């Protein structure tokens, strides 16, 4: 009987993996989404919390934060508060709530270069087990100089992508389009639902059956406002073993039929 590297790592992490369970994703993961406001930050925090609880040294990078003038909590601060990973870092911030390249232009500031984003991510990844990079908006939003995107960054870093998707109407098309764009650049991807309603309606249940890609988690709606210690305790229930949790996508989909 042979054991997969995943089962060995799973056992070492105390996740109780058997051979059949998929390996936890290590290295660099780009958290992208089908749109802005889909729950990327909450999903990033949940993965960071579950991996940290499994003994991993986790870094979270937000390459470009916009809308800082609105007084909203920056995404890296939300993740630090909810998940307490080893490291959180924001590389560039701009006041207006716009896509990062536009926000830099409007502010008259230099946008973040792709080279700087890649160098920083590689350097941070060297002394962490898992490095999570949260994009801004959806996959093809221009993040910096020359219009580089989260897709370009994921491809350059050889990262895996987590596509955060909505639960409701419209998600089938947006999720399929996002996964197609990732596949064209050979970026492996899993899907996590950003906010699964407490009382799923017909549209949510049918979407689950037809959603493209490989479902690796579903965060309950309301998770973002949980007290952080509760959030950290619960995070492992929302994510499957690839994302350091105990969520079972097959059981979840059949329960939700
Ligand atoms: N599971 C959840 N529980 C509670 N609130 C949530 C959940 N997911 C998302 N939200 C809320 O929805 C809003 C948008 O979520 P979030 O900020 O995570 O989106 P995002 O995809 O990170 O957007 P951005 O592109 O601005 O980074 C926030 O107010 C957040 O608190
Ligand atoms: Mg966010």
From TrEMBL:
It comes from the Bacteria. ATP binds at residues 37-42, 75, 134-137, 220-222. InterPro entries: DTB_synth_BioD, P-loop_NTPase. It catalyses: (7R,8S)-7,8-diammoniononanoate + CO2 + ATP = (4R,5S)-dethiobiotin + ADP + phosphate + 3 H(+). Substrate binds at residue 66. Homodimer. This is ATP-dependent dethiobiotin synthetase BioD.
């Amino acid at each position: 009987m042979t054991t997969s590297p995943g089962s060995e790592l799973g056992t070492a992490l105390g996740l109780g993996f058997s051979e059949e369970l998929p390996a936890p994703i290590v290295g660099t993961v780009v958290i992208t989404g089908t749109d802005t406001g889909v729950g990327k930050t909450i999903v990033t925090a949940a993965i960071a919390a579950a991996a940290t609880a499994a003994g991993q040294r986790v870094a979270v990078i937000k390459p470009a934060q916009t809308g800082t003038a609105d007084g909203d909590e920056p995404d890296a601060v939300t993740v630090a508060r909810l998940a307490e990973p080893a490291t959180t870092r924001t590389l560039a911030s701009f006041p207006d709530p716009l896509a990062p390249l536009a926000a830099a232009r409007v502010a008259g500031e230099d946008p973040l270069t792709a080279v700087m984003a890649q160098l920083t991510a590689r350097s941070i990844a060297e002394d962490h087990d898992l490095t999570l990079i949260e994009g801004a908006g959806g996959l093809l939003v221009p993040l910096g100089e020359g219009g580089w995107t989260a897709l370009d960054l994921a491809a350059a870093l050889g990262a895996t992508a987590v596509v955060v998707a909505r639960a409701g109407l419209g998600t089938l098309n947006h999720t399929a389009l996002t996964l197609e764009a990732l596949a064209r650049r050979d970026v492996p991807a899993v899907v996590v639902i950003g906010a699964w309603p407490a009382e799923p309606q017909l549209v949510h249940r049918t979407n689950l059956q037809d959603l493209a890609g490989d479902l690796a988690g579903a965060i309950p709606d309301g998770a973002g406002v949980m007290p952080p210690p509760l959030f950290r305790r619960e995070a492992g229930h929302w994510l499957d073993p690839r994302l350091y949790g105990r969520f079972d996508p097959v059981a979840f989909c059949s329960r939700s039929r």
